[in-house]
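Table 4 source record.
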Amino acid sequence: MSFTSTVVTLATAETAKLRDLPMPPLAFGAIAFASLIVLLAVLWSFRNTASKYDTPGGAGHGDAHSSRGSHGATDHGAHH
């Protein structure tokens, strides 16, 4: 081993100090997993929402409360 490589090794060993993590590495994974589970729960709470709001009030084709008249007109003043 040469003198130059020894000096470089000693110089880098003193300046390259590792920082400790604020918590164990496993805790970072646990936090990420818990966050994923919470986000999935929020997503799950919105399931089937589109079909709930697809037809307001459950009005279908034969419903008496439908805005369409007997001739298929959508304007309320078009009825005879």
